[in-house]
Amino acid sequence: MACVTFSRGSVRRAGEQVRVNAQLIDALTGGHVWADRFDGNVADIFAIQDVFVAKIVEALKVNLTTTEKTEIARAKPDNIAAKEAFEEGWSLYLRYTAKDTAAAITSLKEAAEFDPEYGRAYAALALAYFRVVESLWGKELGRDEPYFWWGAHDYAELAKKYPTSLSYTVEALRDVYQGLAEDARRNAGRAIALDPNDPEAHIATAWALTISGEPAEALNFVATAMRLNPNYPSHYVLARGLALFATGDLKQAAEVFGEGFRRNPDATALFLPLSSVLAQLGRREEARQMLVKFRPGIGQKGLENIPDTIHLSFKWDYEHASVRERLNDGVRIAALPLDVTVTSLEAELETGNLFSQQYAVKRLGWFGPAATQAVPALVEALKVEHLRREAIEALGKIGPPARAAIPALVALQNEALVGIYAKNALSKIRGN
Length: 432
Known about the structure:
By secondary structure, this protein is mostly helical. The chain has helices at 45-60, 66-74, 80-93, 98-114, 119-135, 145-161, 165-177, 181-194, 199-211, 215-228, 234-247, 250-263, 271-280, 284-294, 300-309, 321-335, 342-351, 354-366, 375-381, 385-398, 406-410, 419-429, and strands at residues 5-14, 17-26, 32-41. The protein folds into 3 domains: 5-63; 80-319, Serine Threonine Protein Phosphatase 5, Tetratricopeptide repeat; 342-429, Alpha Horseshoe (Leucine-rich Repeat Variant). Helix 4 (98-114) runs antiparallel to helix 5 (119-135), helix 5 (119-135) packs antiparallel against helix 6 (145-161) and helix 7 (165-177) runs parallel beside helix 9 (199-211).
């Protein structure tokens, strides 16, 4: 069902009268599998929804289990007011601005008040609260981020009492925030199983795949979500861009983030990833401008503190945590004064004092492969005890272009204090 068909339709309302159109489309041929229409009173809308579900199931020759029928029933509210409040809140949530998110929360709370067993309303509230945290909108909404963080978890727990595709999506995203890739994949799979046409479930699956080291496969799920929702919101762009970043396609990631920013200049969750990618592509002035947009009015010190004070909500699992570190290093590069370059850092390493040398080595690591010219200087730094660990880590971040450092690192891999770092750097340089 999820692979070869999808449904679409429309609802038109005039006063108390409503017309519902529904179609089932063959995704491979574009042909119609089934279509039907209903004209009647708006009070009968939920009964008609049940009829349409039954007809679609019959058209597909699918046998629903008792559990599946129960889950479908739970996804629907008991009254039209709850449904209307939810739809209003959800449309506001998808706009991805602080003002609209605040309004979305109000509408979604109304939906839950109209129907206290409306699981999708609780799940949507959890998503809205998480977004406030991700986007650092707490002050704009009158509370600090921890209030919304814990509130999101409270709503997620309420949503679990009335399971829907969206509640499993929330569970998957909670797992993503904790770096629990396998749990995220399992919950995202449950979301898709309950509703194969829910684009949010496909986005959750994409996140789960990205943080578990399968970003190329994640892109397929993002594409499906974008097909299901052609007017996709900015968090789809975030999922696609970070999957591309994880594959190493920085140029395409920059294009995706840039287009997303142009579509919605208020989508602050895109600012740091875009800044990071631009910096790693050598477009440092543009990268710095994005940081200034993210935190207008702060000075140089404030810019350089951003990577250490603002943490991305999502976490890669342990084996793929280096992707997150690369993302943070790009932001660190973007925050540097433009006159700080690989060449200037090499000079600092040669002539500076002990403190500035240590800082220079660490900064060279931020540049990754772009600091390849500094490999000889970093190999020399391995001979200096107070620079050794930072130099090892910098060479590891440069990766395969630092092959000339392999003999020196091999000689250190059995050292008590730095051996484990040398082994890790060797693994990265050898492409493992």
